[in-house]
Amino acid sequence: KAQRAKFLSNVENELEELAVTITQTRKMVELIKGAASKERERVEKLFAEASKVLATFQKEVVGFIEDGERSMLAEAEASLQQKEERRAKLAQCKQNLENVPSTDTIYFLQEFQALKIAMEENLSPAPSFQNELSFTKSAQAVCAVKDVLSDACKNQWDHLLGKEVDGLIFQEMEEGLYSPPGRRCRAGRPATASSPQGVHEWPGVAFVIDLDSDTADKFIQLFGTKGAKRVLCPIPYPERVTRFINCEQVLGENLMNRGNYYWEVELIDGWVSIGIITDDFNPRESYDRGRLGRNEKSCCLQWNGQNYVAWFGGFESVIQQPFFHTIGVFLEYSEKALTFYGVKDSKMTCLQQLKVSRFKKGQFDAFQNKINCRFPSLFSYNLKAAFFLESVDAHLQIGPLKKDCVSVLKRR
C-alpha cells in the first residue's frame, strides 16, 4: 500500500508539472503567434514603403528621361528647321542668280547682293547636347540601384539564415563605408557620421570616378559623368585653365593620395588610353608632351587597335594579350604600384604592372629602367584618373564595378 500510495503521488506530481508546462507552452505558442503576426505586419508595411520608394524613383527617372528628351528635341528640331530654311533660301537665291540674263548687269548685281547677304547671315550656334544627354545615364543609375538592392537582399537573407556574409555591399554597410550615389566625398571617400568630411583613411578599393567637364578637350563629348566620346565638331565648352587644349583628354575629378583604389572602364570603340596623372599637370602642354604616358607626370595603358601598350615617360612596353572590353585599374598608393587588368566574366588577367623591380642578372629593359628611376616620384603628388581618346571614333564608359573583382582585391 505504501508503494502504491508513493507511486500515485509521483504520478500526481508529474501531472501537475505537465499541467504547468502545458500552460507555459500554450503561452509560448500564443507569444510566438503574436510576435510572428506583428513581425509580418511590420515586414509587409516596410515592403509596401520600399515599393513606394521604388515606384517614386521609377517615376522620377522616367520623368527625367522625358524632360531630357523634350529639351534635346526642341533644340535639335529648332536647329534643323533653321538650317532647312537657310538651305532653301540659299538655293532660291542661287537659282535666281543663275536665271539672270548675262546682259542684265543691274539685275545680276541685285541677285548677287541678295545671295551674298543670305550667305553672311549669322546662324545660331550648333546645339550642344552635353547637358541634355545626361538622361542617357539613367539606365546606369537604375542598374546601380538594382545591383545594390540585389546584393543587399542576398546578403541579408544569408544573414538571417546565420550564414557567413562575404558580400561587398553588406560588409561596407557594416563598416559604415557604403554610401549611396550622391553622398561620396572628395577623393571617393564616403562620408560617415563620425567623419562628415570624409578625411579619414579609406580602407576600401572600390573607387567612384566622375569625369570632370572642366578638363575635357573641346573634341570630347561627355555623356553625364561616366561616358566620353571623341567627335569631329568642337563643342563650345567655357574657357577653363584646367581644360586640355592640344590633346583629346579628360580627367576624373576625384583625387587619389593614399590607400588603394580600383575602377573599371568599358572600351566601346576606337583607340583609347587609360591611366593616371598628377593634379599639377599643365593641360596646355604641346601634343607631344601632353599625351598620357609621354611625360614623367602620367602613365597609361593604350589600346591601339592591335595591341595593348603601357606608356610612361615616353617609353613603351607592348603587351601580348587579347582584347578585353573591360579594363580594371588598381592603384596601390602605399606600394607605389599601378596594375592594369583585363576583366571578363569577373575573371581578372594581369596585363601590366608598373612598379619598381630589380633586373635579373644579364637582363635589361629600357621601359622597366624608366619605371625604376622615375615612376615612384608620381606618388609624391595627388593623382587623378586620366583618359585619352586617340581616334575620332574613340568611345569609353566608366563601368559599374564587378563585385567579384573588388572582393578579390579587397582581401589582398
TrEMBL record:
Q: Could you tell me which residue ranges the B30.2/SPRY domain spans? A: 187-396
Residues forming coiled coils: 66-100
Which superkingdom heads the taxonomic lineage of this protein's source? Eukaryota
**Presence of keyword Metal-binding:** yes
State one Pfam family annotation: TRIM_CC
Q: Name one GO molecular function term.
A: zinc ion binding
**Which InterPro entries is this protein grouped with?**
B30.2/SPRY, B30.2/SPRY_sf, Butyrophylin_SPRY, ConA-like_dom_sf, E3_ubiq-ligase_TRIM/RNF, SPRY_dom, TRIM8/14/16/25/29/45/65_CC
Keywords assigned by UniProt, alphabetized: Coiled coil, Metal-binding, Zinc, Zinc-finger
Recorded protein name is TRI47 protein
Q: What is the lineage of its organism?
A: Eukaryota, Metazoa, Chordata, Craniata, Vertebrata
**Name of the gene this protein is made from:** Trim47
